[in-house]
UniProtKB/TrEMBL annotation, chain A:
Listed transmembrane segments: 6-27, 32-51, 57-78, 90-111, 138-156, 185-209, 221-246, 253-273
Keywords from the named record: Amino-acid transport, Cell membrane, Membrane, Transmembrane, Transmembrane helix, Transport
InterPro entries assigned to the protein according to its UniProt record, in alphabetical order: ABC_transp_permease, BCAA_transport_permease
One GO MF term attached to the UniProt entry: transmembrane transporter activity
Protein name: Branched-chain amino acid ABC transporter permease
Pfam family for this entry, one: BPD_transp_2
TrEMBL record, chain B:
Membrane disposition: Multi-pass membrane protein
Official protein name in the record: Branched-chain amino acid ABC transporter permease
Location relative to the cell: Cell membrane
GO cellular component terms given for this protein: plasma membrane
Keywords on record: Cell membrane, Membrane, Transmembrane, Transmembrane helix
Major place of residence: membrane
Domain of life: Bacteria
Lineage: Bacteria, Pseudomonadati, Pseudomonadota, Alphaproteobacteria, Hyphomicrobiales
Transmembrane segments: 27-49, 56-74, 80-103, 110-130, 156-176, 203-224, 244-269, 281-303
GO molecular function, one term: branched-chain amino acid transmembrane transporter activity
């Protein structure tokens, strides 16, 4: 029982991290709450379906291609939509909600309301210390952790990452130092949306794809990001573990609805008593 | 707007409001009633936008109104008018109590907080099967009636809903034109100055927030007694987003904005029923276009260049 709890917690926490990382990165750099984040997860899942099941490309190549599609759509959306609303908090939230409706509608128009059937490239289970772990979930969690580590490298060890962190800390000062927000913004969107696309493409073979799958993904990203502190990446990683534990624990002991209720209760408490989150800055 | 323009607008509004009686068609009544119900939710969201805070919990307050009214009428046996009043009082009291704490949070954090709150309210309806019926919701809600006068027939219910919308608009206008509106404008213009003169800004914003929840609860009560059946997912954040879209389409700066938005958006799905596959895409695209090219909404177009 306890081993199973640990396994469920670790597997879901890894995916939660991936979901939240892009969301918090975009907020940190652009101060935009991307309510369409879940739709980029959905785009990743559908892109995987097209590349893998329609075009017949292997999963190993289809996975990055799907993320690339989500990232490119993200850049286009940044250029056409979000850029005009930088600095307008409420306006950017509303336009993100409108974008979410549009993307959901576009996928529904092309693929219909029922989710496509996606081949499962990985099957079977491994048993580890008395706990049963499905191989496909293990693979998804492992890839998610690698991506989180790579994003961390990108942020701390490259010039682009430095520019993103500088803009996130103080856009004005960064601009005075010669960093152009017009190049860091699309870069943040590309990375954030590609990470969401990866999350969708990794989970699609396990849980399937549907036009409204973004809602659940957004909820998870939202809870993690608020608990960890908007814009804080280390906070998001810790909060993903916390949410994984909360989810797994309450789901096993009681039921999933109560787990969701508890996570929203935690969100409300954090926003009221520590609005900057576990590690966020005010 | 000049006096003549105001008169034309008032006449047009009256003509639109009375049109369903002329059409006399059951389906037209049905759509008109939905416009009134969803328009009220949009008005409630409009009130929170007026205090500069985007509340994504309004659908949840509509749900509180719907469940309270349904339970008061069905299980406690109260007549519909009392159940409606009870639902409004309950929702407003919850909003006032919550408002003391949550209205201290501003900006993005407030939107996120109310997003969480709205989802939590719906999850409470799902989790507590007694008395909320869980995922199945509540059935057998008694139809509306005023004393001996039954409002079960669609024309009668529409007439009642129309009167309610009219009264709510009058009340909201009074609220925004009177002292609270003046205080809110002074807070919007220069909050530190206004507070230095002794304005208890939290109390005023709490008042408006409670009023917004009351309007949402009216919408919920009408919804429950009109359909006779409610389930939790009707009141999730998606419902609030729809109300927000109505405000954007109609114009955020205008009291008539949310109703104009409801008038345009509620019948749309009925019109596009044939092309249900493309409906959401068209909807989303027109919304994006509106946000990008016409940020003051269609109502803003009508109002010309004058400030609302």
């Amino acid at each position: 029982m306890f081993q199973q709890f640990l396994v469920i917690m670790a597997l879901s926490a890894a995916i939660y991290m991936l979901l939240a990382l892009g969301f918090t990165l975009i907020f940190g750099v652009m101060r935009v709450v991307n309510f369409a984040h879940g739709e980029f997860v959905m785009l990743g899942a559908y892109a995987l379906y097209v590349v893998q099941d329609v075009l017949g490309v292997g999963y190993a190549a289809a996975l990055p291609l799907a993320a690339l599609v989500a990232g490119l759509v993200g850049v286009v959306c940044e250029r056409l939509v979000f850029r005009r609303f930088v600095g307008d908090e409420i306006g950017s939230m509303i336009v993100a909600l409108a974008l979410a409706v549009t993307l959901k509608g576009a996928v529904t128009a092309v693929f219909g309301t029922d989710g496509p059937s996606i081949a499962r490239p990985i099957s079977g289970v491994v048993t580890l210390g008395g706990a049963v772990i499905p191989k496909d979930q293990l693979f998804a969690a492992a890839v998610a952790l690698v991506l989180v580590a790579l994003t961390h490298r990108l942020l701390v060890a490259t010039r682009l990452g430095l520019a993103m962190r500088a803009v996130a800390q103080d856009a004005e000062a960064a601009r005075l130092q010669g960093m152009r927000p017009w190049t860091t913004y699309p870069a943040a969107f590309a990375v954030g949306c590609a990470l969401a696309g990866f999350a969708g493409a990794l989970t699609a073979p396990i849980y399937g794809a549907a036009p409204d799958m973004g809602d659940a993904a957004l909820m998870k990203a939202f809870v993690v990001v608020v608990l960890g502190g908007l814009g804080s990446i280390p906070g998001a990683l810790i909060a993903a573990l916390l949410l994984g534990a909360l989810d797994a624990g309450i789901s096993i002991l009681f039921d999933p609805t109560l787990a969701a209720l508890a996570s929203f209760g935690a969100v409300i408490a954090v926003l009221l008593f520590r609005p900057s989150g576990i590690l966020g800055r005010a | 707007m000049g006096r003549a323009a105001t008169a034309v607008a008032a006449l047009a509004a009256a003509a639109i409001a009375l049109a369903p009686f002329l059409a006399g068609d059951g389906f037209v009544y049905h759509v008109a009633i939905l416009v009134a119900i969803e328009g009220l939710l949009a008005v409630s969201l409009h009130l929170t936008l007026r205090i500069g805070q985007l509340s994504l919990a309004q659908g949840g307050f509509m749900g509180i109104g719907a469940y309270a009214s349904a339970l008061l009428a069905r299980d406690a046996g109260l007549p519909f008018p009392l159940a409606l009043v009870g639902a409004v009082v309950i929702a407003a009291a919850i909003a006032a109590a919550l408002g003391t704490v949550i209205l201290r949070v501003r900006g993005v954090q407030f939107a996120l907080l109310t997003f969480g709150l709205g989802e939590a309210i719906v999850l409470i309806f799902v989790e507590f099967v007694v008395p909320f019926g869980g995922n199945n919701g509540l059935m057998g809600i008694p139809p509306a009636s005023l004393g001996p006068l039954s409002l079960q027939a669609r024309p009668a219910f529409y007439g009642f809903a129309l009167a309610v919308v009219f009264l709510v608009l009058l009340a909201v206008r009074g609220l925004l034109a009177g002292t609270p509106g003046m205080v809110l404008r002074s807070l919007a213009d220069n909050e530190p100055l206004s507070r230095s003169l002794g304005t208890d800004e939290l109390a005023w914003r709490r008042l408006v927030f409670a009023a917004s929840a009351a309007v949402a609860a009216i919408s919920g009560s009408l919804y429950a007694h009109y359909l006779g059946y409610i389930s939790p997912e009707a009141f999730n954040v998606g419902a609030t987003v729809k109300a927000l879209i109505m405000n954007v389409v109609g114009g955020v700066g205008l009291l008539a904005g949310p109703l104009i938005g409801a008038l345009i958006l509620v019948p749309l799905p009925e019109l596009f029923r044939a092309s249900v596959r493309y409906q959401q895409l068209l909807y989303g695209l027109s919304l994006l276009a509106l946000m990008l090219f016409l940020p003051r909404g269609l109502g803003g177009l009508l109002a010309g260049r004058s400030r609302p």
